[in-house]
Structure formats: C-alpha cells, structure tokens
Amino acid sequence: MRHQPTTHLNPRSPLVLDTRDLPRRPGAMRVVTRSIPAPESLGLELIWVPEGATLDLDLRMESVSEGVLVSGTVTGPVEGECGRCLRLIGDTVAVPIQELYAYEHSTTDETTDDDEVGRVHGDLIDLEPALRDAVVLALPVNPLCRDDCPGLCPDCGRPRDELAADHTHDRADPRWAALSNLSTQRTKE
Ligand SMILES: [Zn+2]
Ligand SMILES: [Zn+2]
Q: What pTM was estimated for this model as a whole?
C-alpha cells in the first residue's frame, strides 16, 4: 500500500531526491549515493530492516520524456525469525528498485493516478513509497534460517538439528518416555 503523495516534501529528508541538478533532457543522468537511517516499520511481520539501521542507496536518476526514472539498489541489514525453528536471523539484502516519476502536467501526469505512477513534486521526489514496496517485495513471507531448516520436534519443541537423528518420543515404551521426560526437564533447567 502506498502512502498518500506528499506535496510538501522536505528536500533535506534522506528519502527525498532533488532533481534540480538533473537537466530535463532525455538521456541526462545523475548518480545518487547516500547512506540513510532506515525508516520505521520497514518490512514484514517475521523479517524487517531495524529502524535506524544504515541503508545504502546506490541510485541513478535519468531524465526520460515524461519524467524521471529512478533505478538502482538499496542495501541494508535485515533481522527476523526463522518460521520453522524460531531462531533469530540476521542477513544483508540488496534490493533492486526502479520507479518512474512523472513531471507535473506531463501526459503521464494527466492520464495516470499517482498511486500507479509517482510524481515529481516541483523538483522533488519522495522515494519512500517505492523503497517500502521494493523492500517488502524482496523479503520472504516465511523466512528461514537456512533452506533445509528441519524445524522443531513437535513433541518436545527442541530444534531438530540439535537432536539425534533417531530422536523420537515413543510413548509405547515407558523406558523411552522416562528418558524423554528427563531430557525435557534438563532443557528447562
Ligand atoms: Zn530454522
Ligand atoms: Zn522431541
């Protein structure tokens, strides 16, 4: 979901791009590299970019006939929880980003809604909605600590990869049940 377009952008905001130095001539290009603090609530329920963590923007702003095409990569750390074993996950992601921002009064501006195509407001571009979309799209809905994470034993709740290969809870045999109770208690201590 995109934010409402803001018409009063702050040119000093880290997620606002200033196109003043970019000639409005198709083919003109400017490189934007900056490190910015991650905005709040960037990500999904189980995996996210910690607020304030450093995001590296490595972008190109290109003049096209109807506006400015912003493309490049956003790199930053992510934190989350494995959907199978609940271990904490730490990783770095590099997310591709590509978004067209139409000039005011261009044909694109007149013929599209601003939730379909972004807008250049004066000389300024609000990168935040596109950044949020790109990051959310790149993150897994079910993050895993590794692809073949075996998850938790459904009986004792311990990570399977810390248990013996023949680990079972065979309640038919009282000797095994007693052993299993012992080991469960040991983990609780
Ligand atoms: Zn896992
Ligand atoms: Zn078990």
A: 0.78
